[in-house]
Specification:
By secondary structure, the protein is mainly β. It is about 15% helix and about 40% strand. It is built from 1 helix and 14 strands; from the N terminus they run αββββββββββββββ. The chain has one helix at about 15-40; strands spanning about 55-60, 60-75, 80-95, 100, 110-115, 120, 125-130, 130-135, 135, 145-150, 160-165, 165-170, 180, 190-200. The strands form 3 sheets. Strands 1, 2, 3, 5, 6, 7, 8, 10, 11 and 14 form a 10-stranded mixed β-sheet that branches. A hairpin with a 6-residue loop joins strand 12 (about 165-170) and strand 13. It is globular and about 45 Å long. Keywords: Membrane, Transmembrane, Transmembrane helix.
Length: about 200
C-alpha cells in the first residue's frame, strides 16, 4: 500500500494582509504626491517671482510697495536737469536701526533689466518722509522713494522691467560681524515687475 504524506498547511492570510498594507501605503503616497503637485507643493520656488504693483513685498530689511513707473525730468542743481526713468515706491524699514536710501541701502536692492539682459542698479534714490526730503529710513516711519535710472536723450520705453533683491541678516565671509546684506548671488529676486511707463513730475 502506498501512502502519500500530507501537504503542510501554509498560512497565506498574513501574506495577503502584508500585501494589502503595502499596496495601500503605495497608493497613499501616489495620491499625496498628486495633491501636492496640483497645489504647487512640489513646484520649485521661482527665482524671479512676478508681482503686481500695490502690494507690499517683504525683502528682509525693507517692506516695499511699488506704485508705478514714469519718465520725468529731475533738477540736478546749478540750473541743470536730467531725464530719468523713475520707479516710485513706499519703503518701510523692518529693522531696528536706521537704513539708507543710497549706495549702502535701498539703492543696492533694486535693479533694472537692460535690453541686453543685464541687471543694473539705479543711479540715484531720493525720498520724502513726513513732507520733508530724506536720505534715510527710520524704523517704522514710511518713506516715499523715487528710484531713478538716467534716461539720456533716448525715448522712454513702453514698459520697464525691474526687480527687488532680498536682504539677509548675516555675517560676511571674512568677518563675524552681523549686518544686513543684499543677496546678489544666482540672479534670484524677491520680486520682478514689468510695468508701463507713464509721464509726469516725480
Amino acid at each position: 500500500m502506498q501512502y502519500t504524506a500530507p501537504v503542510p498547511h501554509r498560512n497565506t492570510a498574513g501574506g495577503r494582509r502584508r500585501l494589502v498594507w503595502a499596496s495601500a501605503a503605495v497608493a497613499a503616497v501616489v495620491v499625496l504626491a498628486a495633491v501636492l503637485w496640483a497645489t504647487g507643493g512640489l513646484k520649485e520656488k521661482p527665482k524671479q517671482p512676478v508681482k503686481p504693483p500695490g502690494k507690499a513685498v517683504d525683502v528682509g530689511l525693507f517692506a516695499l510697495t511699488v506704485h508705478d513707473v514714469r519718465a520725468g525730468v529731475v533738477d540736478g542743481g546749478l540750473g541743470g536737469s536730467e531725464r530719468y526713468l523713475i520707479v516710485r515706491m513706499r519703503v518701510v524699514n523692518e529693522s531696528r536701526e536706521t537704513a539708507w536710501l543710497g549706495s549702502t541701502g535701498l539703492q543696492e536692492g533694486v535693479v533694472a533689466r537692460t535690453k541686453t539682459g543685464k541687471w543694473v542698479e539705479p543711479d540715484e534714490v531720493t525720498g520724502v518722509a513726513a513732507g520733508a526730503e530724506t536720505y534715510t529710513v527710520q524704523p517704522g516711519l514710511p518713506v516715499e522713494a523715487s528710484v531713478m535710472w538716467k534716461l539720456g536723450p533716448a525715448q522712454p520705453p513702453e514698459t520697464f522691467t525691474f526687480g527687488l533683491r532680498e536682504w539677509k541678516y548675516d555675517h560676511g565671509f571674512t568677518d563675524n560681524e552681523y549686518a544686513w546684506r543684499v543677496q546678489r548671488e544666482g540672479g534670484a529676486l524677491a520680486a520682478r515687475y514689468t510695468l508701463p511707463v507713464g509721464t509726469g513730475t516725480p
